[in-house]
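Q: How would the structure tokens look for this protein?
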Amino acid sequence: MRIGIVRGSVVLNVSTSLAGVRLAIVEPVTADNLAARNGKGGGKSVVAVDRLGAAEGQMVGFVEGREAANPWWPGEAPVDAYCALLVENVDFQPLESVSESEEQK
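A: Here is the predicted structure in token form.
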């Protein structure tokens, strides 16, 4: 699972297996931007199925690959990414900061 920020949405013209499903453009958040808490993503954007109704600018947790299609099991769906949760709070400390604080002890 990765963390990303919803940057917009996509509308499909014709689709049978994804009829009525919202697709969100999600920009993954890099570790540096997550530590800086600057609201920037920094990763390459993906299109993810969003059944949670995430708002533009909201942080989400998303999965990719086979796990993204699991909500349609035992059926199949042409899905590569899926918004699995809405992020309310992040407590993140980069590895460099962790090792520095341990050295100070």
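The chain has one domain: 2-104.

The first strand starts at residue 2 and ends at 10.

Upvote if useful.
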